[in-house]
Amino acid sequence: MKIPKVHLYKTLIAIVAVLGLIDSLYLSYARATHSSLACSVLDGCNVVAASPQAVLFGIFPLAYIGVLFYLGSLILLFLHKRETLYGYSVAKLFMYYTIAGVASSAYFIYLQAFVIRAFCIYCIASAISSVILALLALLLLRATLINIKTAPEAHEYDDTANTDQETAKGHI
């Protein structure tokens, strides 16, 4: 049996989070500069971006929340090397964080479909990114727990450990 490679999941998470961050930064830039979005696939981007639903409580643009979400994902990913943060499992915190992102994205897609009646390709890309992040967070949690179980004497697990089970048991 092979031990899952935590660093593979962390690399994939970093890639998806950076792509989501770029997407959110573009939306934030367009919002801040009052620029039109380049919409080649779906023509509802500017309708969605200009809608009242694109601003939380009428004061905080959702694009900015996206930037904070993806930055938070990268920060939690960086903190993942630690087993705990204030007594909480960082891997579990990250999983819950990304699940909250999926729930928010699902609500925003609902708003696009049934309230605004237009779709933004950048918003859909962000929703897909948040779903992928949540799935990877679940895999990362699983891999982290397996690494901790197979090396209980280690205070912090090694996310670059070999995948060979004998190596994990200390038999080289």
The CATH fourth-level homologous superfamily: VKOR domain
Question: What structural category characterises the helix and strand content?
Answer: mainly alpha
> Would you give the CATH topology?
de novo design (two linked rop proteins)
Query: Class, according to the CATH hierarchy?
Result: Mainly Alpha
H-E order: HHEEHEEHHH
Order of strands, widest sheet: 1-2
Mean pLDDT: 84
Residue runs with pLDDT of under 50 for 5 or more positions: 154-158, 161-172
Beta-strand fraction estimate: under 5%
Distance between the termini: 15 Å
Rg, alpha carbons = 19 Å
Number of domains: 1
**Overall number of strands:** 4
Query: Count of helices?
Result: 6
CATH architecture assignment name:
Up-down Bundle
Protein described:
With 172 residues, this protein is mainly α. It has a single domain, classed as VKOR domain (de novo design (two linked rop proteins), Up-down Bundle), CATH 1.20.1440.130. 66% of the residues lie in helices and 5% in strands. The protein has a two-stranded antiparallel ribbon with strand order 1-2. It has a two-stranded antiparallel sheet with strand order 3-4. Helix 1 packs antiparallel against helix 5 and helix 3 runs antiparallel to helix 4. 30% of the residues are buried.
What attributes characterize this protein structure?
single chain; 172 residues; mainly alpha; de novo design (two linked rop proteins); two-stranded antiparallel sheet; 6 helices; 4 strands; disordered C terminus
